[in-house]
Amino acid sequence: MLWQRFRTQWWPPVREPARYGLLAAAAAAVVSLAIPPSYVVHSSVRATSSSQSALGGSILELAQRFGLAPQMGGVSPDVLAVLFETEDVLESVARTRFSRGTFEMLWWTDCPSRADSCDLPHIWRIGGHNVRDTLERTAKALDDRLNVSTSARTGIVDVSVRAGDPALALAIAHRLIAVVDSSNAAIQRGEATQQVAFISEQVDGARRALRSAEDSLAEFDVANRAVLSSPLLQQRRVRLARSVTLAETFYTQMVGALQQAYVAAANNMSTISIIDPPALPGRRSWPKRTVIAVIGFLLGVLASTARRYGRVVWREVRGAPE
């Protein structure tokens, strides 16, 4: 009874839209098979600031607060995110030779068949007018396949790399993080070297000030041997002794800051902490064949509806009196 009612009442109105939808879905599924797959590798990193924490309790921190010295030993998440997309970093990754096992799924490469490794311009078949143009085009293509976002609250930088082979996407992500780490370390060492020059000048000035204060106190003691019998002489000596103590304290702190700056300038440790390491993707991110088929089905139904009602409107227009 229900089946008979479905065939006679419900099915005829939806038969043509359903047929168009199924045909469009099948065509969309076939087209999706021709779309090259892509895989995305995600990673989360954060900048470390070991040298900055080492300098935290010294007079250098006070100098940095008043703008007397540049900040050193740390980098903001926004700066770290910018490093991932700088031309120098992208070109360094583009020049990297990746092993053949990382792009075995890509059959349209320009890499020699017997080569054990290949760089991105040949893997992605990118050509230019000259070597420099090819490298710039490859860096631009890598930038298009790269997505970097920053969390201001946590200071974590999320990095996503897209490629046609999951192993290649993973290799690019690892290489990209390594190059950014190296570049960030070079920047911090350069800042530390400038900091050493600045603190060295302060140490020399503090040494001269301490020596002058000590000489003034010594000259006072030689010229005034009866200090205990005069309150005014006692007060003056206390002031001179206080100047020596302050100059000695400042000199000691600057010497300690200089030693810490030397350590920061020679630091070769990693400047990036990997929160979420890159992992080999198990599923492709594109194309979504099910989604494409559903969209094709909906477009087919829409086309059938437009065709049906378009005929009705056309007949009414043709039959309307002039």
Question: Please, could you describe this protein's structure?
Answer:
There is one protein chain. The chain has a single domain, classed as Bacterial polysaccharide co-polymerase-like, CATH 3.30.1890. Helix content is 63%, strand content 10%. The protein has helices at 2-34, 50-54, 59-65, 77-84, 87-94, 120-123, 131-144, 166-223, 231-265, 289-319; strands at 39-47, 97-99, 117-119, 146-150, 157-163, 272-276. A 4-stranded antiparallel β-sheet has the order 4-5-1-6. Strands 2-3 form a two-stranded antiparallel ribbon. Helix 1 packs across helix 10 (289-319) and helix 5 (87-94) crosses helix 7 (131-144). The longest helix is centred in the middle third of the chain and has 58 residues, at 166-223. The chain is elongated and about 125 Å long.
Under the CATH scheme, which class? Alpha Beta
Low-pLDDT segments: 50-60, 62-73
Helix content: 55-70%
Give the ordered list of helices and strands: HEHHHHEEHHEEHHEH
Shape by Cα distribution: elongated
**Structure summary, number of beta strands:** 6
Largest sheet: 4 strands, antiparallel
What is the terminal-to-terminal distance?
49 Å
Strand content: 5-15%
Biggest sheet, strands in spatial order?
Answer: 4-5-1-6
Pairing-aware structural class of the strands and helices?
alpha+beta
Rounded to the nearest angstrom, the radius of gyration is 36 Å
How many domains is the backbone divided into?
A: 1
**Would you tell me which CATH topology applies?**
Bacterial polysaccharide co-polymerase-like
CATH architecture: 2-Layer Sandwich
